[in-house]
Amino acid sequence: MNLSKLITLSFFIVIASACKTTKKNTISTVESAPSVSETANTTFPFMLNTVDYIVPGNDELIAIQKQYTDVTLEQLKQGHEIYTKGACINCHGPQSIKRFSTEQWKIIMNDMAERSSLTKEQKDAVYTYVLAIKAK
Known about the structure:
Blueprint: H1 3-18, H2 36-42, H3 58-65, H4 73-85, H5 102-115, H6 120-135
């Protein structure tokens, strides 16, 4: 098994063990959730640190529009919200975006979007947010 597949498999094992259920019905913002830096330092050491946390702006929009011309800043911001405050943190904290390849993120997004019951629009928003951060 090559290293890329081993990393992806390890990621899914960690995420699956962290989830309390296999499927969420809604996206919710949890106001009392621990901060990214608190969670990163205690639960998942491979997660983002606060200094690596990127709120999308014009630089990220320009970076992703080279590949996807119809992406809007609003869509990137929606993806950021879901990734950092919504469905993605209901089971685990945000992962380091640059740690995984674009191909790995495609697999991760397909699996996690189904588990968390994201709509196609929400899934696309998170995926384009991830790609925008990787592209910058």
